[in-house]
Specification:
Largest sheet: none
Number of strands: 0
Low-confidence stretches: none
Strand content: under 5%
Helix content: over 70%
Shape: globular
Structural class: mainly alpha
Distance between the termini: 35 Å
Radius of gyration: 13 Å
């Protein structure tokens, strides 16, 4: 399985679980993955030069205590196994998760 397929599959699996548990559709995330790909979407979410505000989906995950289902956590999980995402990307994802815990 290619890296793109692995990341897309994992994001969609966790998104489906999050939808069941929160009732939120995560339409924007699904559309971004369709339009730009899973890896590019994940990297854009943690890019400190990009839009740093938290999307509604992240707010819903935090409210429900489900940040473990976030794209940021997927980046951490893959990166810590030495797959796909770099050490810097893992650190950026961890920082974003910590910030979500503080401000949401």
């Amino acid at each position: 399985m290619f890296d793109e397929d692995k990341v897309r599959e994992e994001i969609l699996r966790r998104t489906a679980e999050a939808e069941l548990l929160t009732g939120h559709s995560f339409y924007g995330l699904r559309k971004a993955i369709r339009d730009d790909g899973a890896i590019a979407t994940a990297r854009r979410l943690i890019d400190p030069k990009g839009d740093t505000k938290f999307q509604m989906g992240m707010r819903e995950l935090k409210k429900a205590g489900l940040l473990r289902l976030s794209v940021e956590q997927i980046i951490v999980d893959f990166g810590e196994r030495g797959e796909i995402f770099s050490v810097d990307e893992v650190e950026a994802a961890k920082e974003r998760l910590a910030m979500a815990e503080l401000v949401l």
